[in-house]
Design brief:
Blueprint: E1 3-5, H1 8-20, E2 25-30, H2 36-48, E3 51-56, H3 76-85, E4 90-92, H4 96-99, H5 119-122, H6 126-141, E5 145-149, H7 153-165, E6 171-175, H8 195-200, H9 203-216, H10 222-234, E7 239-247, E8 262-270, E9 273-281
Parallel strand pairs: 1-4, 2-3, 2-5, 3-4, 5-6
Antiparallel strand pairs: 7-8, 8-9
Helix pairs in contact: 6-7, 9-10
Bound molecules: adenosine monophosphate (AMP).
The site of adenosine monophosphate has 17 residues, from helix 2 and strand 5.
Length: 291
């Protein structure tokens, strides 16, 4: 039976008992508007853990002043149904006041250098907001394992650094990106796309495929591969490129000469939706799925 819990104290008391009984707690943090991408993380947690906790919290701290905090889709009833279908044990759904009782938290976590490139350029402070809420969620849930999607590759790098640098006893599990049949990465923000924009949105995936093909054809210049990705996005007239990059998957530094695995990452606006996607590839362009 799914327990829907709003109170952090109630959550903690319940999970304390389960941890004391020696059960492994798995955790999937989300912002709701759940889709098949989230479901794949939940399925993995269900297969690997005794107790599965899913949080649904749209975190104000990770949205900039002109971003889509108010418009972000909120579909809690459907989210709870999806949790029930996937045999989740606890849905943790704190209100903003429950999460941030003083309003603006005094103590925050910074993502440091890892929060600056890629999405950090357009979304200053975003990864500090992510690191802060993930630290708080880990404090509330006390998971043994936490599941994050590789679709948000920079977020995954930041969260791995968070648990390493703040010595948090959590194993971070990165999960493969779930895509629509045409290749578009599933995202809660895909709901913003009208039918024409939806068709155009596949440009991000195509661009990453073009980047991989450039590697497969022998290109070894990181900036040239990034340029291929950028040009492919820009050839879609409904798309407005934010960035295309070829970076080190661990440090997120730009790669000049491709002689090891690279992260090809892209962000673009399609209509009002800002979409992101990425692929990790070997120097000869083969996609790498695991961590
Ligand atoms: P969000 O609700 O967008 O904050 O996402 C919650 C978690 O689901 C994050 O770890 C995301 O990386 C992951 N996620 C979102 N979309 C996908 C997807 N298409 N495939 C795999 N994981 C995803």
């Amino acid at each position: 039976m799914l327990r829907v819990v709003e109170s952090t104290t109630e959550l903690r008391v319940g999970l304390d008992a389960e941890r004391a009984a020696g059960l492994v707690v798995g955790f999937v943090p989300t912002m709701g508007a759940l889709h098949a991408g989230h479901a794949s993380l939940i399925r993995r947690a269900r297969a690997e853990c005794d107790v599965v906790v899913v949080s649904v919290f749209v975190n104000p701290l990770q949205f900039g002043p002109n971003e889509d905090l108010d418009a972000y889709p909120r579909t809690l009833d459907d989210d709870i149904r999806l949790c029930e279908q996937h045999k989740v044990d606890v849905a943790y759904v704190p209100s903003p006041a429950e999460m941030y009782p003083t309003g603006d938290p005094e103590i925050r976590v910074t993502a440091g250098r890892l929060g600056l490139p890629l999405c950090g350029r357009t979304r200053p402070g975003h990864f500090d907001g992510v690191a802060t809420v993930v630290a708080k969620l880990f404090g509330a849930v006390g998971p043994c394992r936490a599941y994050f999607g590789r679709k948000d590759a920079q977020q995954l790098v930041v969260v791995k650094a968070l648990v390493r640098d703040l010595t948090m006893p959590v194993e971070i599990v990165g999960c493969e990106t779930v895509r629509e049949p045409d290749g578009l990465a599933m995202s809660s923000r895909n709901r913003y796309l009208d039918p024409d924009d939806r068709k155009a949105a596949v440009a991000l995936f195509r661009a990453l495929e073009a980047g991989r093909k450039a590697l497969a054809d022998g290109e070894r210049s990181g900036p040239k591969v990034a340029e291929v990705v950028a040009a492919t996005v820009s050839s879609e007239r409904r798309a407005r490129l934010d960035y295309a990059a070829c970076v080190d998957p661990g440090t997120l530094d730009d790669v000049v000469n491709v002689d090891g695995p690279v992260l090809l990452a892209v962000a673009a606006w399609i209509g009002t939706a800002r979409l992101i996607d990425n692929v990790t590839a070997t120097p000869d362009g083969a996609a790498i799925q695991e961590d």
